[in-house]
Amino acid sequence: MSNTSDFKILKEDHTLGNLLAEHLKQAPHVLMAGYKIAHPNVPELMIRIQTDGSITPREALVGACKQLVAMYGQLGREFQKELALRQYADQGEQGGGNGGGANGGHY
């Protein structure tokens, strides 16, 4: 079992590469994580992960992906909640009745 592996991820770029590499660097069993894009016109990302041997690089990558999916899922739910509250508040302001006019008193 090797503690260093390279992974090719197709149809991805710096956005995912940087996100994964930086998240992996924070993992306690990951010694090194980095990525490269061979050419800007080739949509593939190469990521290299080295661990301390207590977990495999594949386990580190899968764990990081699961954590990121959970983290951004929570962010999406919080965003939707805040958006709904904002829309509800905006409806209250529009129906507030500040007097005549076609615009409800707002010009």
TrEMBL record:
<dbReference type="GO" id="GO:0046983">
    <property type="term" value="F:protein dimerization activity"/>
</dbReference>
<dbReference type="GO" id="GO:0003899">
    <property type="term" value="F:DNA-directed RNA polymerase activity"/>
</dbReference>
<keyword id="KW-0539">Nucleus</keyword>
<dbReference type="InterPro" id="IPR022905">
    <property type="entry name" value="Rpo11-like"/>
</dbReference>
<dbReference type="GO" id="GO:0005665">
    <property type="term" value="C:RNA polymerase II, core complex"/>
</dbReference>
<dbReference type="InterPro" id="IPR036603">
    <property type="entry name" value="RBP11-like"/>
</dbReference>
<dbReference type="GO" id="GO:0006366">
    <property type="term" value="P:transcription by RNA polymerase II"/>
</dbReference>
<dbReference type="InterPro" id="IPR009025">
    <property type="entry name" value="RBP11-like_dimer"/>
</dbReference>
<comment type="similarity">
    <text>Belongs to the archaeal Rpo11/eukaryotic RPB11/RPC19 RNA polymerase subunit family.</text>
</comment>
<keyword id="KW-0240">DNA-directed RNA polymerase</keyword>
<protein>
    <submittedName>
        <fullName>DNA-directed RNA polymerase</fullName>
    </submittedName>
</protein>
<dbReference type="InterPro" id="IPR037685">
    <property type="entry name" value="RBP11"/>
</dbReference>
<dbReference type="GO" id="GO:0003677">
    <property type="term" value="F:DNA binding"/>
</dbReference>
<dbReference type="InterPro" id="IPR008193">
    <property type="entry name" value="RNA_pol_Rpb11_13-16kDa_CS"/>
</dbReference>
<keyword id="KW-0804">Transcription</keyword>
<dbReference type="Pfam" id="PF13656">
    <property type="entry name" value="RNA_pol_L_2"/>
</dbReference>
<feature type="domain" description="DNA-directed RNA polymerase RBP11-like dimerisation">
    <location>
        <begin position="5"/>
        <end position="76"/>
    </location>
</feature>
